[in-house]
Specification:
Membrane-bound Lytic Murein Transglycosylase D, Chain A; rod-shaped; mainly alpha
């Protein structure tokens, strides 16, 4: 656009320079529309009458002023667009930072999930090992007091929790059970007390409420019953 302005301004100067040559001219029959980009040729300018020349110069000056005004408007819009672009760039940078933080959090959670998923679900007993010590291992439960869960999960092998033998493959439960098969000598409070259930004997009422279709008296449950364990 600036090149057009310079070009048109140059045409105006050329026209001024040729004024003396057109003073005695008889004029040119063709009419031009400067606003549409239609101009006289240099040869036609030399043939313009004085009135035609004056009108032509006025048209060029007006078009130059119009183009100058449009240039200012375009520059103003350009500055607005630059400001909007800068604001968008700032928003994008914030979103990228948030994404980076969220991704870091997700990666950390995934790393933890991978760790727990790769923990052993079966343990082969070695010489000198016992349930208390196996439960204390970091890759098992990292808590020696949780050995009863290993015992409860392996009653098909273990008669006496103080006697286990090298070579035995013990199941290591990893999930939170949603059902429970009642064993001899168990009652609702005892089952609720198991740490893999609720770790709180007072929560026996949850078991009772969830299994009223089987339990008429909460003090009486029978081995072999399969109880639902609600997980809120």
């Amino acid at each position: 656009m600036k090149q057009q302005i310079i070009r048109r301004a140059g045409l105006s100067l050329v026209a001024v320079g040729l004024m003396a040559l057109t003073a005695c001219s008889s004029g040119v029959d063709r009419q031009v529309d400067v606003t549409a980009g239609d101009y006289y040729t240099p040869e036609e300018v030399q043939k313009l009458s004085k009135d035609q020349y004056s009108d032509y110069c006025a048209s060029l000056d007006q078009e130059l002023a119009n183009l100058g005004q449009k240039s200012q408007e375009v520059n103003g819009e350009t500055q607005k667009l630059k400001a909007q672009t800068a604001s968008l760039d700032s928003d994008i940078k914030k979103l990228e930072d948030q994404y980076g933080q969220k991704k870091s959090d997700v990666d950390a959670v995934q790393k933890e999930i991978d760790y727990y998923e790769n923990l052993p679900k079966v343990w082969t007993v070695k010489d000198g090992e016992f349930l208390y010590g196996i439960s204390a291992m970091d890759q098992i439960y990292a808590d020696p007091l949780k050995w009863p869960r290993i015992y409860r999960a392996n009653k098909d092998k273990i008669e006496d929790p103080n006697l286990i033998y090298p070579g035995w493959e013990l199941t290591i439960p990893r999930d939170w059970p949603t059902t429970w098969t009642v064993q001899p000598d168990e009652y609702l409070g005892k089952i609720a007390w198991y740490w893999e259930v609720y770790n709180d004997p007072a929560q026996w009422t949850k078991l009772y409420e969830a299994n009223k279709d089987q339990i008429s008296d909460p003090d009486i449950i029978w081995p072999g019953w399969k109880l639902r364990i609600p997980r809120d």
